[in-house]
From TrEMBL:
To bacterial alkanal monooxygenase alpha and beta chains. NCBIfam families: oxido_grp_1. Residues 7-313 form the Luciferase-like domain. This is LLM class flavin-dependent oxidoreductase. Signal peptide: none annotated. Pfam families: Bac_luciferase.
């Protein structure tokens, strides 16, 4: 059975292109991903970045879902410290009501931004117990519809009426999200996220595309501690997705040239700088060791082979790809050509 391939997008902006064009490029990538047979199109929450336009992921995913018909769309992920579980349930429950059986909700513990911006966003803690409590609330909000034990004051206020406090709701409901049973994923880049995913019985998406160092340890924790009897359990056995950065072109030389944009972005972020993606540079990028998920560069055949080895090495159930190219058309072609080769090889 072929291991599913998915895409993680952050709607990156490129030098010389507008932010609106970056968002339009993201939509076109979602459409191309569907046509190429990708399993999911996820978007990651980032705030205050002049590189990534994916701050309001629910809005962008709604747009992507409206202009596609079969591909699953979802967050990769919603950063729980930034949001109340009720609001997340309302947003993603609305998406799931509009686009049934197509919406995923990946959840993370990081703020997805710098400390100053995080302070403006934060509503809760990121400790494991806080996150676990929020996940439990989310699952209950998405659960089966219960008969209400009162009326909503907001309903009455629409008609200019007031309601006796004795007749108001005594339970909190996420409408229209209740009953949608949106699938939850736990995201992580350490053993902490793996522990939460295991204790809650959730599928786990590991951020190996930027933090592979602790991957083996995290997956060991996840698989060894996985609880099928957890109240929040959604899968019957440990289920792992992992991220891989790629750059694919007809020749390895061309792929290495295009990958200089990715390396320039890494250098910017490493030194605290930010800005749109830069055009490729003439200096060559030295490829990372083979099978390193932080950046696999080459022809469709060589990249597919290396990802296949990565899948086998970690017994992965799914791979989610990112690609940073200055030209959005090159990003699209990179991912689509890899999907064709992946399917051809039956990996």
């Amino acid at each position: 059975m072929t291991t599913p391939l998915s895409i993680l997008d952050l709607a990156p902006a490129s030098v010389g292109r507008t932010r609106k064009e970056a968002l339009d490029d993201s939509l076109r990538l979602a459409q191309a991903a569907e046509q190429a047979g990708f399993h999911r199109f996820w978007m990651a929450e980032h705030h205050g970045s002049s590189t990534f336009m994916s701050s309001a992921t629910a809005l962008l995913l709604g747009r992507a879902a409206e202009h596609t018909s079969t591909i699953r769309v979802g967050s990769g992920g919603v950063m729980l410290p930034n949001h109340s579980p009720l609001m997340v349930a309302e947003y993603y429950g609305t998406l799931a009501t509009l686009y049934p059986d197509r919406v995923d909700l990946g959840l993370g513990r990081a703020p997805g931004t710098d400390p100053v911006t995080a302070a403006e966003l934060r509503r809760g803690g990121s400790d494991l117990n806080d996150v676990a409590a929020d996940v439990l609330k989310l699952q209950r909000f998405f659960g089966d519809i219960e008969q209400g034990d009162g009326v909503s004051g907001a309903q009455a206020s629409v008609l200019g009426l007031s309601v006796n406090p004795q007749h108001l709701h005594r339970t909190v409901r996420a409408i229209p999200g209740e009953g949608t049973h949106v699938p939850l994923w736990m995201l992580g880049s350490s053993t902490g996220g793996a522990q939460v995913a295991a204790e809650l019985g959730l599928p786990f998406s590991f951020a190996s595309h930027f933090a592979p160092t602790h991957m083996s340890a995290a997956l060991s924790v996840y698989r060894n501690r996985f609880r099928t009897d957890a109240e929040t359990a959604q899968v019957s056995q440990p289920t792992v997705m992992a991220g891989v950065n790629v750059m694919v072109a007809d020749t390895e030389e061309e792929a290495l040239y295009l990958a200089t944009t990715h390396r320039a972005l890494q250098n910017q972020l490493r030194f605290g700088a930010a800005g749109p993606l830069q055009p490729p540079a003439e200096e060559k990028v030295e490829p990372l060791p083979r099978n390193d998920p932080r950046l696999i560069v080459g022809t469709p055949g060589s990249v597919a082979e290396q990802i296949g080895r990565f899948v086998d090495m970690h017994a992965l159930d799914e791979v989610i790809l990112t690609c940073y190219a200055y030209d959005p058309a090159a990003r699209e072609e990179s991912l689509v050509s890899l999907a064709r080769e992946w399917d051809r090889q039956g990996l």
